[in-house]
Amino acid sequence: MEKLLFDLCSLGGVSGNEVSASEYCAEYLRRYTDDVKIDSFNNVIAVIGNNNADKTILLDAHIDRIGFVVTEIDDNGFIKLEKCGGVDVRTALDSPVVVHGKEDYFGVICCMPPHLSDGNEDKAVSPDKLWVDVGLSADKVMQNVSFGDSVSFFAKPKMLLNNRITASALDNRAGVAAILKAAEFISKLEINSRVIILLSSQEETFAAGAKTAPFNYDIDECISVDVSFASQPGIDDQYRNISLGKGPMLCISPILNRDLYETLKSLCEDNSIDYQTEICSGNTGTNSDHIALTKSGVRTALVSIPEKNMHSQAEIVEISDVEETARLISLYVKGGQNV
Amino acid sequence: MYNLSLLEKLCTSRGISGDESSIRDIIIDEIKDFATEYYTDNLGNLIVFKKGRYKPEHKLMISAHMDEVGFMVTDITDDGLLKFDEVGGIVRRVLPATSVLVNGSVNGVILNKPIHLCTGDEKSSIPKLSEMYIDIGADSREEALKHVLPGDSVSFEAFYKDNGETIITKAIDDRAGCFMMIQLIQSELEYDMYFTFVVQEEVGLNGARVAAYSVNPDFAIVLESTTAADVPGISGQKQVCNVGQGAVIGYMDRRTIYDKSLINEALNISENENINLQFKRMIAGGNDAGVINTARGGVRTLAISLPCRYLHAQLSLIAKTDLDSAYELTQRLCNRICGGEV
After folding, report:
1. B125 vs A124: CB contact, 8 Å cut-off?
2. What domains are defined for chain A?
3. Which site among A72, A87, A115 would you substitute to test the B interface, given the most B Cβ atoms closer than 10 Å to its Cβ?
4. Which of residues 174-213 of A touch B (CB under 8 A)?
5. pLDDT category, A51, cuts 50, 70, 90?
6. Which B residues, 234 through 273, put their C-beta within 8 Å of a C-beta on chain A?
7. What is the pLDDT of residue A336?
8. Rounded distance between C-alpha atoms, residue A334 and residue A310, angstroms
9. Higher-confidence residue: A237 or B65?
10. What is the pLDDT of residue A112?
């Protein structure tokens, strides 16, 4: 699992440019089924299980990551960025990034030196002043980088204490890893349902993947896997009681199916899986909001992996939470029997 | 001409002010077969003497600092998070969600409250250092104490990328200076010279003060990195200097008024030998020259700097051509000084 997470978090795949991540995951899923495709939105769709079954279950995790797009290149070769997804500009300055041009180029986000910061040390950079310095001549940059190319934070994945991993893009490569691991379990089972695995694109921007891919199937139930907030300094709302290492978070929300929640909760209790409860009194802000409204409606559950530092280049999850999420999904697909 | 893998090793190794020993060990290993004599003084400065082919007219000391900016652990919370304070001046705006290394072995990251849960001004505010925490993955103070103690050193995570034209790395300030001095020591010298690899520049020029006393030179050259603010949105004088336009010298900064004859000699060398040289266009910054030039009865001093973007942060950028210019200028200026031509 550690290697899978390291690999997934080292891939590009900013919203709308998911190809590198989609290809990696499609190849991974071909170990378990021949029915794998990547559609025009860069969604990865794999079908496992009994194709003639009465019940169709969708397992979803978004594959895209937050990042930037190139909007301008100046006469000195500096590259102007705009946000693609909910990048937190407070974390941007002087950060290493990868510019996904004709090749990948390392760069650093420009940062004002102290003599020019004019006492603005307390303020984050304005989002309209984000530039990347790749340290190459303007000619070379113009030849190899185009408007619309994506730029992602670079952070070498690392282990912290307690089997925790820190990396950029754990939102939502942690969810993707849980589903890939579940696919491995499920492929070894005799199951009575058809399972569609969807690694969906553009969640961080417009949820275009989750809005489109499920339309092609008649789905009865869906489990969507994402990350959600774990407690850290400054958090004093309901998330203050969520911890890393205490298992997946099961969400209660108007748009989610309560019976599915109860089923997942019972599966946790019967199989010694620690779980935590997340409450979203409105929508969930995840793919599940869209999948639940597919065609005439889909009974949907949201399972989240607790994460610290969300939407930064130093997100943190505990590997056991990813593994337990995979186990819970597999148990659910199996219909409650042990895997 | 250079062994750039040595520069990479120097930049990616850790050595915040007061904890420079691992950098000093690398340097000793590099110079021990080339130096005539060397010793480490009471503060941790590495002082090296190398005989050249001739006895110099003037006693010359070249100096670069070994330390880099970083942090020190000040306390550990009940939840196992590390409180920290800066060692040297750091641009605080670069810190949220930055990766760090405690004691060179324990991985950590600086926490950043998720933007989704921030309200109002919080979304665009950089917290005070006193409100920042390093997470090493521990859940309790007791657990954290098995790995970290208050007073432990924290450095930025190692990073080094060379794209052929420029280098982006941690700690170019002032490992590039150390690197150039090592190259000089490993070369055949015309004249006897002293080299001081000093400690604690970033916290008050402490090492250079005592090293200059010990060496007691007539002349000194300080090898440094200086702010280049030639980035979008900054024009004219405020750029200070430009990456790719050569070595940097200045008439004056916040610590020192430099020796006029050394400035003129540097200009002559640049003109006659086609070495790129630029003037600092703003009185900003300061370096070890400030204490070296007033050591004992006074030392005629010049700082030769590399133009460097994003100083005092996690990553800085230099151009390889500027490294060449600074090295060549230094080499020639040493010979002029030692040969009595200044």
Report:
1. yes
2. 2-65+168-334 (3.40.630.10), 67-153 (2.40.30.40)
3. A115
4. none
5. confident
6. 234, 238, 240, 243
7. 62
8. 32
9. B65
10. 81
